[in-house]
Amino acid sequence: KVVALCSVRECVLQRAVLVRKKLTAKEGGGWLSGTLFCTHFRVAFVPQDSPKPDDNADPVLLGDHDVALASIEKVVAVGPSRTKLVTASSSLKFTPEELVLYCRDLRVLCFLFDRLTPDTQAVEITYTIAKTYQPLKPGTVLSFQNAALGSVEMKQFLSNRRRDAQMNWFDSLPDWEQELERTGACGWRVSSVNDRFEMSTSLPKFNVVPQKVLDTELKKTFAHFNEGRIPRWCWRHPRGSDLLRMASFQNNIYHEKDDIRNLELILFGGQSLCVVVELGDEMPSPTDIQLAHTRLRALCLGDISTSVSVPDDKWLSTLESTHWLDYTRCCLRKAAEVACLLRGGHLTVVLQEAEDRDMTCVVSSLVQVMCDPHCRTRVGFQGLVQKEWVMAGHRFLSRINYHRDSDKEEAPVFLLFLDCVWQLWVQYPSRFQLTGDFLLALHDSFHLPLFSSFLANCQRERCKRSQNLSQSYTPVNGWRDVVPRGSFPDPSDPPLPPVWDWALQYSSQRREGFTQPGSLPALPQPLFNGNLNTNPELSDSAPGSVFLLSRGSFSCSANLLPWRSGGGSGVYRKSHRRGGSSSENLPGLERLLKAWALTELPQGHTTTISGLQGPLDPYEPLLPLLLGPCLGVWRDCYLRGALHAQAFSHPISSSTQHPVEQLAWEVQQLRDKLALASSPTNTVPAKTQEPRQTDSNLNQNTNNSTFLFPACRHPGPVVSRTTPPILNLQPMVPPVSSAPLSRPGPRDSSKHTFLFGHPSSSEARPDQRYYPAPNNNAKLPKSNGPSLGS
């Protein structure tokens, strides 16, 4: 049967009537009645009062209450006295009362069958979903894409689709030139020497290199680096420093005199100093990230099929053992060090990783989010991901492992980056135009194998899919990709849209929450490159000096550059001073922060912390607070299915709160009364204030001072959104409700624990207004300091 669901015509495999969907606290709580459908593409829930789809409206892939089959990880049927994990080969010997869908994006969807729902419909739709959803394989991924995008109407719609003109896609030479002009980067040019991917198969067609290096000379430098990933320009700080990234040097390569000259021209970029930041030793490996994320998923979701969940008193210690927050803290710390270095001016900072395809993406992106207000807007952030991840050759297809054929390479590095951005957004909400809803939408889209942004490991693979590329060999040119004349993409493969086509994924109401409005203030006096000198520890070094920043300290390793390791060149001497309290053994970040504190800001600029009101300096980096109370779990993402996974109850009146939510509300009322009683306007004995002082540390883990939720960093009344109550509750029996229950049956409530109460939707985060940087689309001033062109 073919019906129209959300303006997309699909083949309905099975349906069930009189079904109730459990709503999350963000959706208003309670239960929503409607009809449940299963198609070749998704599980769709259509509420009873939903309007009829408009045939003339643009199609939306997923409704607000839908889930794609590719996002489902397991299907659980809940009966009167048991639960069962349902697979394609399972035999269900009871009529399910509840259907629970565990999703790869950490959602848990609960559907309750009414007593009037035919038993055959409840059993059949459970079986149908379990048989239709399959562990992703190459064949199933293609069939899933055809089910979603393969119809004639959808192909025609996508072929006429125009991409966002406000966003920089970084897939053409003018796009890169626009970025150079926006950042005011002088002395750099866009090279197309890799336009056929001959120099490096994983690098994009266009790369930014110094103007003094010709393409004929540039070709000789690719052989000196792993996978040919040469040092490339990423971004220029308004104070004149440049950020580069590169892979490790190749071993046993003979460095000719001309090669050495070109390599040093690229590394220094016209500056007198170069700092190489080695990311291999300090940053987590992809294997570490995958293991931490797997443990975090198990902690947040539990397993309803075995009724196993972590006790309340062990939750925080278990969270600490996942090491996910440790890796988040590590990435933020390293990005803060690099941001402080770039603020000094007159140097290049080169991020180095063995393959330059994982942690360099994370750190370079975080540095730009911290320092560039444009990257904190929705359009700017999308361009940042497009530049530093999609075009830079991050192995999305291997790291996501859609086909389940590269388990050893699977690692959600991109999700770790999104978590780091969320931590910055929580600490500086008014400095971001994008919102947490936008980050959450990008997190969920990451798990759908529908978007060209995530279905390839590099630009070359995307080009091969969009064009029928064959290879030819000649003795002079070697292997080359050849586009046959008149060739077109395989008509059997549906066109894959980019992930940034939000109108194809979400309704207009959901998209409105991706940004927060704000008015542009008056344009301040620009800070020209080279005006300030805030790095005295390195400024007196000899020209051409190369430093290594590792574990927070500077060093001058003789093996840092292979062509310099043969002799004791004078450029490798350390910077010696006759006086002062600084020392080479002092951590580098601490010295930079000390120099930064002594720097006089231009008139009219003051530094602000965490969105406090006052004059804003858009050129100062957003340095995160990294201590335990300041980093928390991304609650809207990781814990949105926690209550569903740990406690199930039959529906009560839509106007009645869930027992756990009711209890959390009562606890919050008591907290508000305590805050009112301890206010300076009331005379309260000192004894009544003692519990108030220890209340903020209820969720502290003394192992590494990691907190589940970020605490308020300024003294004042406790705000529930920043320091929600952490409850250590014993198993409880929900109060008896007068509302009629559907499919009543015995339920062992002692197996479930209630961890978290949902905050009221009316609670607001303090000072969430967006204060945008002056004229984000304006061009940054060009450098007056040293450059390659001078």
From TrEMBL:
Origin: domain of life: Eukaryota
Location of the region described as Disordered in the Swiss-Prot/TrEMBL record: 678-790
Extent of Polar residues compositional bias: 694-707, 774-790
GO cellular component annotations of the record: cytoplasm; membrane
BP GO terms, sorted: phosphatidylinositol dephosphorylation
InterPro entries, sorted: MTMR12-like_C (IPR022587), Myotubularin (IPR030564), Myotubularin-like_Pase_dom (IPR010569), Prot-tyrosine_phosphatase-like (IPR029021)
Domain Myotubularin phosphatase, residue spans: 170-638
CDD domains for the chain: PH-GRAM_MTMR11, PTP-MTMR11
Family that this chain belongs to: Belongs to the protein-tyrosine phosphatase family. Non-receptor class myotubularin subfamily.
Protein name, per record: Myotubularin related protein 11
Lineage of source species: Eukaryota, Metazoa, Chordata, Craniata, Vertebrata
